[in-house]
Design goal:
There is one protein chain. The chain is mostly beta strands. It is built from no helices and 11 strands. The strands form 2 sheets. Strands 2, 4, 5, 6, 9, 10 and 11 form a 7-stranded mixed beta sheet that branches. A 4-stranded antiparallel beta sheet has the order 1-3-8-7, with no helix packed on it. A hairpin with a 6-residue loop joins strand 5 and strand 6.
Length: 122
């Protein structure tokens, strides 16, 4: 599966943004999927994960209650709805496929898509 993230941009603190991750290939509906982010000078941080059928989700502590991950198999697309954003949400956001649901370490993810920049102004 090949992935491409989009939807990033500049948003004010407290605002909302929706990221998309478009997948090509037939295996999208069979894959668990996730979002990571990377701020300048920092390592990748787990953001959220969704099971292959969309029935289960996991969130990182820093985004829990503010972000929502979802997927639409008919469009081969995964989403990240970002609400009540904060300046510390500023990062490049990447989507990826996952081998196992419930494992949030980077090694569990593959087919990393090109990221999309999110900048939150205070």
């Amino acid at each position: 599966v090949q992935l491409q993230a989009s939807g990033g941009g500049l948003v004010q603190a407290g605002g909302s943004l929706r990221l998309s991750c478009a997948a090509s290939g037939r295996s999208f509906s069979n894959n668990h999927m996730g979002w990571f982010r990377q701020a300048p000078g920092r390592g990748r941080e787990f953001v959220a994960m969704i099971s292959f059928n969309g029935g289960n989700t996991i969130y990182g502590d820093s985004v829990k209650g503010r972000f929502t991950i979802s997927r639409e198999s008919a469009k081969n697309t995964m989403y990240l709805q970002m609400n009540k954003v904060k300046p510390e949400d500023t990062a490049v956001y990447h989507c990826a496929a996952a081998r196992y649901f419930g494992r949030m370490d980077e090694q569990n993810f593959y087919s990393w898509g090109q990221g999309t920049q999110v900048t939150v102004s205070s």
